[in-house]
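RECORD TYPE: protein structure
NAME: SusD/RagB family nutrient-binding outer membrane lipoprotein
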Amino acid sequence: MKKLLYSLLLGSAVAFSSCESKLDEKHSNPDGFTSAEIEYLFTKGAQKTIENDYADTWNYNFRLIGNYIQTTARQAGKDRINLYQNIQDDKARWENYYVTRMSTLTEIDKIYATLSPEEQTKYQNYIEAGKILKAYNTAIATDFFGNMPYTEAFTARNVVYGGTVIFKPKYDTQKDIYYAILDDLKSAAAYFKTASGDDTFKRQDIIYKGDCNGWYKFANSLRLRYAMRISNVDPEKARQVLSELSLDQLITTNAENTYIKVSGIDTAPDGIWRAMRESHNKTHSYYMYAPELTVNMLKEAADPRLVVFYQPATDNDGNVYENSKEIIGYPSSADKAISLVNGPDGTRLFEIYGCLNTVTFRNNYQLPVGIGMTAAEVYLCLAEAAQRGLYNGNAEEFYNKAVILSVQNYYEYYKNSDAEKGKDMTIANRDVSDETLSNWLATSTFKFNPSKALEQIATQKWLHLGFLQIYENWAEYRRTDLPVLDDDRENGTLLNKENAPVRFLYPAKEASMNTENYNAQSENNKISARLWWDTK
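PREDICTED:
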């Protein structure tokens, strides 16, 4: 039974039933699936891949990873050392990958294999888009764990569809996993380059509404992202992938960004908005303060993003206090936070320090439910590649374009917000044209400087990804160790930087249910063990 349960977890059958007899009874005839089920499964798979759900946003964006990389600031400082030292397991990311993210997508593959060649042709769009989504999910997972079961991990449902069931899947190396997802993305991009979407695909595709060119550019943009992810440890592979990409194949405008959006509050899932509402109030404490490092950096640069990222101190509903005029950043150091909490204003810190902008984020139901890729990130990847000689192009031009697109992206969030109150029309109507932003950037502290270009590029990526794309941001911070964060000290002890975790642990069940394969990886199963691509 342990073996069966383990296989169900890795193979994603948990999402469909709880025991083999019920599985067989429910799915005894694979040919009985109707044609619509692939379509519906695809929509669910796309949602689970891209969306920021409530639990993840609550736990990781604000309470764990957000603290590691200082994209948000929390009021409490006491016992913060536990954030850095008390990772004892996988933090639910193992099951999140094998069950939540992958089960529906791998089920589509198995149904597809039972179809006739004619039917398979009709569903090819779903299979190729599924490759892209699975690559995206797998990159996130391996960036948490490094080596992990992959090629043998999804066989449990073969008890229904036929074929071998592997109870104890081997661990693939992270290098092999990255090479595999890069191959899948290349294959999917080649398909979507000439594909077209029918009316059904347009209805079921909640990301690009059936626009195959959108999927083509998403696949290629992910190839760019992952090539740069491995570029420090495997520059030749990165160079080879980059040599196959050109600007016209990539996401280069904000209109092409990979989003899931809803029409407003009536159709919005609880997800990210509930996590934000509950992460900055008296009941659940305060986790959405504007970090001091970011605020000071943006102020020094006279960056237009300051006022759409953050706002002055607010009440529980996100309304700015009448006497609160300035955006003041909250310190990321535990000792400084403890001093503030224990100081004369300790009970009213929420009336003093700035927080995430309510109009842009907290009450904005036009904000994407999830973000897969943006044009600003694409240009930042290109800027780094060009600066390092991995790609032909002008690093400064790529960098400038990235910063401009990032500013415009966040102003779109603010301008299009459906927040019922609080919108400042001076901000909403601000001129953020290319020309105006180019003039600002030319005199800003963010002006491109070849002597510190890589630090500037990494800093802009950290600013742009922010808390909305927390997994990508943490991966990039571990890869580059930039920007240089403020010291987070408790009782004088440095908690972050070289002392911060660089991976999550394997779940405890791996040691008991997949012992031999786990033991081969056990030396890597510590929070200080760097991943393959994470070179110091």
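COMMENT: Residues 124-145 form the longest helix (22 residues).
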